[in-house]
Write a structure and sequence with these properties.
Blueprint (H helix, E strand, L loop, with lengths): L8 E5 L6 H15 L13 E5 L1 H11 L4 H13 L3 H4 L4 H17 L5 H4 L9 H10 L2 H9 L5 E8 L5 E7 L7 E2 L2 E5 L4 H7 L9 E5 L2 E6 L10 H5 L4 E5 L21 H31 L4 H6 L6 E5 L5 H7 L6 H9 L12 H7 L3 H16 L2 H7 L6
Parallel strand pairs: 1-2, 1-9, 2-3, 4-6, 9-10
Antiparallel strand pairs: 3-4, 3-8, 5-6, 7-8
Helix pairs in contact: 1-3, 1-16, 2-3, 5-14, 11-15, 13-15
């Protein structure tokens, strides 16, 4: 069965560090619903694939094998399911200790000895192993062939430029697509490579910024979810009429009802986890709400006005975790390398359950197979439970 429809469908995969494993499960569930028999002629159902942060890595993995989507999703699942911290960052005890002491010395004595600042590490963790993992597992020449053969219309990867404060969307397509520019948002056409994925997934403070060449100038870039005020926008600019978003945030209202009489001062881990949650999650739900309001307004406009103004309604469908990933991460924290676990314990992370134990922070950084495999299973279960909604979203006749 071929599910490529007359209305271009975009897949938007947003950030979340280790939470990206959840997206692998969702993708597996989607293909099982759309093509349960794994037919050899099954066509990639997404004309456009967009990603940021960990979602950028998943997006590139699927795009590079858009000609064989089942093979691509199987590969993504295998990578996430066999992941360990040393595949993503250097977990050597001596290196982590040296980095921690450097940071501490700079914060406490930097004003007294300015030379200390010259040797401050660029980030808490060194993710050089991630680059090697991506280089070994992604075939960007195959991506170009898939675009040329129309197995895929476009791939877009986002990153935030520290140098200019802009949110940059790098896109690759064989189609004629006019680059767009908005306030603090800009699109750049060109070949996508590992360097774009490293930049898009550079979690602030945790992983180092990456240099990217943008129109002849070097821009230092970080995680693509920063300043991403309109995460659905690239998909629309690239021609999507329908957008399927896979988020990694869980709407948990449990702690809102709790009113402790004397709550403890929030740990650094709790504050960091809250900051990352805002970076990765809030703009997605806001953009979906904004899109729904725009669609409501467009419904009142005559068809000839919509056509003359190049306006169109865009339908969205979002899949997000049905359970707290923070709590799942806390249960698996013992799998983290001892040196890394000790470092995060100093920041206030503990194995207890609750909002003050740093579960949110660890849920982004726990690159261990026990945790990622559980997220894959959760993603697939959440998707399969919405089978009828998925089929309804892809209900149009084939091209």
């Amino acid at each position: 069965m071929i599910f490529r429809t007359s209305s271009p469908v975009a897949l938007v995969l947003n950030g979340g560090g280790a939470r990206g494993a959840y997206q692998a499960g969702v993708l597996a569930g989607l293909l099982e619903i759309l093509d349960p028999q794994r037919n050899p002629d099954f066509t990639n159902p997404f004309d456009i694939i967009c990603g940021s942060s960990a979602g950028a890595i998943n997006a590139a993995g699927l795009a590079c094998k858009a000609d064989k989507p089942h093979e691509g999703v199987d590969h993504i699942q295998q990578l996430w399911g066999s992941l360990n911290s040393h595949h993503v960052f250097h977990a050597d005890p001596v290196l982590l200790l040296r980095t921690s002491l450097h940071w501490l010395a700079t914060v406490s004595l930097g004003w007294l000895a300015p030379r200390l600042r010259e040797h401050t590490p660029h980030s808490l963790l060194d993710n050089a192993p991630l680059r090697r993992l991506l280089e070994d597992n992604l075939d960007f020449e195959r991506l170009q062939r898939n675009l040329a053969c129309e197995h895929l219309g476009a791939l877009a990867i986002t990153a935030a430029a520290y140098t200019t404060g802009e949110h940059l969307t790098f896109y690759q397509s064989d189609r004629r697509i006019r680059a767009w520019s908005r306030n603090l948002r800009r699109a750049i056409s060109g070949a996508i490579g590992v360097e774009h994925l490293m930049a898009s997934s550079a979690i602030p403070f945790v992983f180092p910024a990456q240099p990217l060449m943008v129109e002849g100038q070097v821009q230092w870039c970080g995680d693509g979810t920063m300043r991403q005020l309109a995460p659905i926008s690239p998909a629309i600019h690239l021609g999507a009429h329908k957008v399927l978003i896979v988020g990694t945030g869980y709407a948990d209202n449990t702690y809102r009802s709790e009113k402790p009489s004397d709550p403890p001062y929030p740990s650094l881990a709790q504050i960091s986890g809250y900051a990352l949650s805002n970076i990765f999650l809030d703009s997605v739900s806001m953009d979906i709400e904004r899109m729904e309001r725009i669609n409501t307004l467009l419904a009142y406009m005559p068809a000839n006005v919509l056509q003359s103004q190049s306006l169109r309604p865009v339908s969205t469908f979002a899949i997000t975790p049905s359970r707290s990933l923070d709590e799942i991460a806390i249960r698996h924290i013992h799998q983290m390398p001892t040196a890394a676990r000790t470092l995060f314990r100093v920041l206030g992370v503990s194995s207890k359950s609750g909002p003050t134990t740093g579960g949110a922070l660890i849920s982004y950084l726990l690159f261990e197979s026990g945790y990622t495999q559980e997220l894959i299973e959760l993603g697939k279960t959440d998707t399969m439970s919405r089978r009828e909604e998925v089929l309804a979203f892809f209900k149009e006749t084939s091209k």
